[in-house]
Specification:
Elements lengths: L2 H8 L3 H9 L6 E2 L5 E2 L2 H15 L4 H12 L5 H35 L9 H7 L9
Antiparallel strand pairs: 1-2
Helix pairs in contact: 3-4
Length: 135
Amino acid sequence: MNISDAARHSGLPAKTIRYYEDIGLITPERRANGYRDFSDQTLDRLRLLAQARLMGFSLEECRKLLALNADEHRASRDVRALAEQNLASVRAKITELQALEARLEGLVAQCHGDDDPECAILDGLTGTAPGCAAR
């Protein structure tokens, strides 16, 4: 199958597939004319990459997941450890986003949203609002 077919079946853009090839995450075969030929095994790797990236795994973690997936003698504890590490990272990002949400909600609530040039949001972003500490 060619790259456009692989893109359609994996849900990844062709540009991303080329990038994954450039960094060695996949190695599609090459036809005599130089075109990539994606096997079912390579397509499975692309699907794994697509899903892992959606779940927040880094490229290096994806590399480890691919290696573990290819290893018939892998220990599931190794896969679980990677997933637990990623879960902790996702939870930390959620906490950061919740703090960001609260800060932004506060700024929006302070803004009058009228024709007056005074802007609590800009003052908050620049740290010039009364009692505002720049972060």
